[in-house]
Amino acid sequence: MEKKIIITTSWDDGHPLDLRLADLLEKYNLKGTFYVPLRNSEQRVMEESLLKQLSTRQEIGAHTVNHIYLNRLGDKGAKYEISNCKPMLEDITGEQINAFCYPGGKYSQRDIDLVNNAGFLFGRTTKLLRTSFDVKSKLMNTSVQAYNHSSVVLIAHSMKNYYLKPILDNTVFIKGHKNFIGLVENTLGRMSNSGGVFHLWGHSWEIEEQGLWNELEMTFKVLSNVRNAEYLNNSECWRYIEAHSV
Fold first, then answer.
1. SS (H, E, C) 90-106
2. Cβ burial, residue 50 (10 Å; 0-12/13-18/19+)
């Protein structure tokens, strides 16, 4: 018997190309959460007028004030980056900001506590090959990144996070290098009987740099045709999972 699959997506760093990504999502009736820092020394961040425009179409999430890896900061600096990005984004968008994403996937228990104390529902990680969340610790994991990782990287990522099950689940995929669409299809195939959350994430600037727009659109076509699927943004997804967790 088929079980329910929730499909959600998220996109980091707030680059102006996020508007192109939003157009593509909406073409296929998909939802996304865009995690936006107020400033970023490494990449362009969209102007406030564009951010406000995007917030009327898709969910906006927080990504610290300055896109700094939290493991490089002391307690005072980490608290500033986490607690201040929420009201700053709310002031710009006029919308409540419920979702937070850890830059670079770097966080500790200190940062989890700061995210919770700041009033966010959860902190999104960069842990791959997951189809469930750590509700107790308020951590949202991901399934696939819109990036062509090698099999070696996928295995290393699983081992680094002490999560060996994906290596077994994706044995056929990992034997050879494929693009991320192959991993998407493989993961969704396994989920048809088990259900769960499929979470695609990435960066619009990286998709541009790697020339992956065509592959991304093909992936969106696949996601838009999943049987028994519900399409939610990250916060809607979190609320659903939390409400149905035992």
1. HHHHCCCCCEEECHHHC
2. middle
User: How many separate domains does the chain show?
Assistant: 1
Structure tokens at 110: 């200190």
Q: Are the C-beta atoms of 130 and 144 separated by less than 8 Å?
A: no
Strands, E assignment, the chain: 5-12, 32-36, 59-62, 99-101, 122-124, 139-140, 144-145, 196-202, 229-231
Q: What is the CATH number of the domain that holds 158?
A: 3.20.20.370
Distance between CA atoms of 10 and 131, rounded to whole angstroms?
Answer: 14
By C-alpha distance, which of 243, 235, 241 is closest to 31?
235
Q: How far is CA 127 from CA 18, 65, 89, 121, 172, in A?
A: 22, 22, 25, 18, 21
pTM exceeds 0.85 for this model: yes
Domain range holding 167? Answer: 5-244
Torsion of CA 92, 96, 98, 99, to 10 degrees: -30
Residue-wise pLDDT tens digits, 154-189: 766 666 555 555 555 554 455 444 689 989 998 999
pLDDT tens digit sequence for 8-22: 999 999 999 999 999
Q: Identity (one letter) of the amino acid at 46?
A: M
Q: How far apart are CA 210 and CA 213, in angstroms?
A: 9
Regarding beta strands 139-140 and 122-124, do their DSSP bridges make them parallel or antiparallel, or are they unpaired? parallel
Q: Amino acid identity, residue 78?
A: A
